[in-house]
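Colleagues,

For the teaching module next term, I've prepared a clean inverse folding example: a structure given as tokens, and then the sequence designed for it. I'd like students to try predicting residues themselves before seeing the answer, so please don't circulate the second half yet.
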């Protein structure tokens, strides 16, 4: 017994040490590189936010969303339209949208972030409410159509989005941190890195808590067998709608910060390929794994950029290599780089023993009282 306890403490100590080392590296990372690589790290964090949000939809609830990048686009435009209109005194371009300038809009920086989150969340609810009764391929087709619809509307709504030319007059945000003092997010990406890192950590905490609650158990029950989950009293449509809302709001937050850093928004940035890349990050890292989503997203952004910097010709073959890597992963490690415990058990074919394993089925969830069975 003592030996087991000693091994457990050693393992816990080792995990703590690794966590501390990773935290130090992540905090100091931008100070060891130039602005180009700092911008790459910011993109990796933004992509990690997208992967975290899509992991809620695909990995937890088992809903295939092929138009996820549309919520990222909504977050971009939710920040770009009011700030660019104010910055240009109510004029984007000749014949463009006229907006009255908002005085001291920089003081409303965090409200704009909240607005982008709410806008994307509302879009997720609007999409999900009439369509989440669909399942499997039918739901995937509807979400694919929604993603393309948002892009096409943004391309053709010249009076608001400036169409394919994009919105370019997006000012750098400022954050007041003391009376009479502001931090200006200029061209240097260091400030964006830490804000994006803070947002990633916040979303990791929120998603972890939700996944460990009865909502998370309901999602896993729906993923395993939606019909059985419904028969056990799980409100399947409501739970799926909540997954869509959380995933969409996460993408909206990433979109707002990306628009603020890049200072340019164009509908050509929100193609089906981007949705596929986010999905690839979730699959590569491990569906249902929060750490895996971050690792997969970071790998998809950082590794190709590193190889491109060493060999510019790699740019022409990166998607071919991505496809080959995913095929190899599906054959030899279908659970992903860092699989969740539940996913690893499912794909290994192991049978969880009572008190030792993890059960996600609707029967187990209902028996444990973790899923609302509709009784008062």
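(Answer key — instructors only)
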């Amino acid at each position: 017994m003592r030996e087991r306890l000693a091994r457990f403490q050693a393992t816990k100590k080792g995990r703590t040490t690794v966590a501390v080392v990773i935290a130090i590296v992540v905090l100091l990372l931008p100070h060891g590189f130039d602005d180009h690589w700092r911008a790459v790290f910011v993109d990796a964090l933004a992509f990690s936010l997208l992967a975290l949000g899509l992991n809620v939809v695909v990995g937890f609830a088992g809903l295939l969303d092929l138009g996820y990048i549309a919520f990222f686009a909504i977050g971009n435009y939710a920040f770009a339209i009011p700030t660019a209109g104010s910055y240009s005194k109510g004029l984007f371009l000749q014949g463009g949208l006229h907006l009255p300038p908002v005085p001291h809009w920089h003081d409303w920086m965090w409200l704009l972030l909240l607005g982008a989150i709410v806008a994307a969340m509302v879009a997720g609810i609007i999409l999900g409410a009439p369509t989440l009764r669909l399942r499997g391929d039918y739901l995937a087709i509807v979400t694919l159509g929604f993603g393309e619809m948002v892009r096409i509307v943004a391309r053709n709504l010249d009076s608001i989005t400036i169409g394919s030319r994009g919105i370019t007059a997006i000012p750098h945000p400022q954050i007041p941190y003391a009376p009479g003092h502001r931090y200006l997010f200029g061209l240097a990406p260091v400030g964006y890195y830490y804000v994006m890192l803070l947002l990633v950590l916040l979303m990791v905490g929120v998603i972890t808590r939700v996944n460990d609650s009865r909502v998370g158990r309901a999602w896993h029950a729906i993923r395993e067998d939606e019909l059985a989950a419904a028969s056990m009293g799980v409100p399947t449509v409501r739970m799926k709608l909540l997954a869509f809302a959380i995933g969409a709001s996460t993408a909206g937050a990433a979109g707002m910060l990306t628009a603020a850093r890049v200072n340019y928004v164009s509908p050509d940035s929100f193609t089906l390929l981007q949705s596929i890349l986010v999905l690839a990050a979730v699959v590569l890292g491990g569906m249902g794994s929060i750490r895996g989503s971050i690792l997969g997203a970071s790998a998809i952004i950082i590794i190709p950029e590193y190889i491109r910097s060493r060999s510019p010709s790699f740019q022409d073959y990166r998607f071919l290599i991505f496809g080959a890597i995913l095929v190899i992963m599906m054959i030899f490690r279908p659970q992903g780089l860092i699989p969740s415990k539940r996913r690893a058990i499912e794909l290994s074919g192991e049978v969880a023993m009572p008190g030792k394993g993890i059960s996600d089925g609707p029967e187990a969830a209902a028996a444990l009282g973790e899923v609302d069975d509709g009784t008062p």
